[in-house]
Design brief:
mainly alpha
Length: about 425
């Protein structure tokens, strides 16, 4: 179908690849890093906040959980705005918002004020990942999509590592409030840069019958269309189960090292940062290996995600059952690499099986599932169990979620090829 701006010369096609694609990827990667810096810095500050305000582990876990909860609440309307309005403008607004909210955390005088500021951090971050995934999917051809997503995913642990390092050092030497103020500043500069990036023209939905989307293109109609795709269900739930493993690990590992391995806050932050940095190997490597395997097996992205989810769960379980063993660090290194290997292939699957006009919304719905069924409750659950039996025993619950994720990926793999065949291919046009 011909698409144009209404009069005059038709817009040029938005071609994937080229230098502009890599410029966009670099900008998205830097933003994702600071997204996770601002989100996860609280983990290395938990010991300081606990000492200052005498909070229980359940309340401390809520400082991470509340971000996930508000991401889940706002991600769908924000994702629809991304798909129907502008990706670059929405990213700019969101980055600016969560950066200001992070800075406000530095001025919190009690638990309630800090919790509210953290909630606004979640609101700001709500639509970023769906917008970024949509821009990557448009900027890179399908054969290279998982690799590009994997590179982008790798910057989440880099950002988390920066948060652990800055939080541990600044908190120990200057006070934990200063750490929030410091990491909030770079996002304001990145927000300005997005107004000058390349974007594609919003894709109309009037001919999207084959994608299961009604003519109205409304939020609920679009969601119902997405949920008619069987593969989507399994990927969403498997994603959530893996996030229910990694979020509590990133939240509680500094405290675990502080309490059971005798490390001070800075040492624990450094060790957790090292673990997070190891995760950056798994994300791009997972995308690369899954894409290579896909040349021989059509549903390789799903099967690969299942295998790595299972292996990472097993390594984590053995590590926490042998905390004083010489194998503890090697096992955690293996977990660190494998635990995020599913991210790129699973995200690419979501983009593969949906209409191009719904890419951000499709990933946005995944983000809802990640946070509602994975990240929002799991840090608080571990904190609550820790209050009763200790953190060392509480963390042994987590490998179970990884095993459930592996089963869901394997069952979902049976539907992938059939769902892929139903997708209508649409030529994207450059934004005027």
């Amino acid at each position: 179908m011909s698409q144009n701006g209404g009069s005059g010369t038709s817009p040029a096609a938005y071609r994937p690849g080229g230098p502009s694609a890599y410029i966009i990827l670099v900008l998205l990667c830097l933003t994702y890093a600071f997204d996770y810096t601002d989100r996860m810095i609280v983990a290395s500050l938990i010991p300081f906040i606990k000492e200052a305000w005498g909070l229980s582990d359940t309340l401390l876990g809520s400082l991470t959980g509340v971000v996930s909860l508000f991401i889940a609440v706002f991600v769908l309307p924000f994702s629809l705005m991304v798909d129907r309005w502008s990706r670059r403008k929405m990213i700019s607004i969101m980055v600016f918002s969560w950066s200001i909210a992070t800075i406000l955390c530095a001025f919190a005088r009690n638990y309630n004020e800090l919790l509210i500021a953290r909630a606004f951090t979640g609101i700001g971050e709500a639509g970023y990942a769906p917008a970024a995934i949509a821009m990557i999917a448009a900027s890179f051809p399908q054969a290279k999509r998982a690799v590009a997503v994997g590179i982008w995913d790798a910057f989440a642990p880099i950002g988390a590592a920066v948060g652990f390092l800055v939080g541990g050092y600044v908190g120990l030497h200057y006070g934990w409030q200063h750490a929030f103020g410091l990491v909030g500043i770079p996002g304001i500069l990145l927000a300005i840069g997005y107004w000058f990036t390349r974007d594609y023209k919003t894709v109309p939905l009037e001919d999207s019958i084959t994608a299961g989307v009604g003519n109205s293109g409304g939020l609920w109609t679009s969601i119902k269309g997405l949920l008619r795709i069987p593969t989507i269900w399994f990927v969403y739930l498997a994603f959530a189960m893996n996030i229910a493993v990694t979020t509590p690990i990133m939240t509680w590992f500094p405290s675990y090292l502080n309490r059971f391995h005798g490390m001070n806050e800075q040492q624990a932050g450094n060790m957790t940062a090292l673990l997070a940095m190891l995760l950056l190997v798994g994300a791009p490597l997972g995308g690369y290996l899954a894409d290579r395997w896909m040349k021989r097996r059509a549903n390789a992205r799903m099967a690969f995600s299942a295998v790595t989810s299972l292996l990472s769960a097993l390594l984590l379980g053995v590590a926490f059952m042998m905390p004083q063993s010489a194998l503890f660090k090697p096992l955690m290194i293996g977990f660190g690499i494998l635990s995020v290997a599913f991210l790129a292939p699973a995200a690419a699957v979501i983009q593969d099986v949906v209409h191009p006009g719904l890419r951000a919304l499709a990933y946005g719905l995944c983000v809802v599932c990640q946070h509602v069924f994975g990240a929002a409750w799991s840090p608080m659950l571990i904190g609550n169990i820790s209050d009763h039996v200790g953190l060392e025993k509480a963390l042994l619950v987590l490998p179970v979620f990884g095993v459930v994720a592996a089963v869901l990926f394997m069952v979902g793999a049976r539907h992938y090829e059939k769902d892929l065949d139903k997708v209508r291919h649409v030529e994207l046009l450059s934004e005027s």
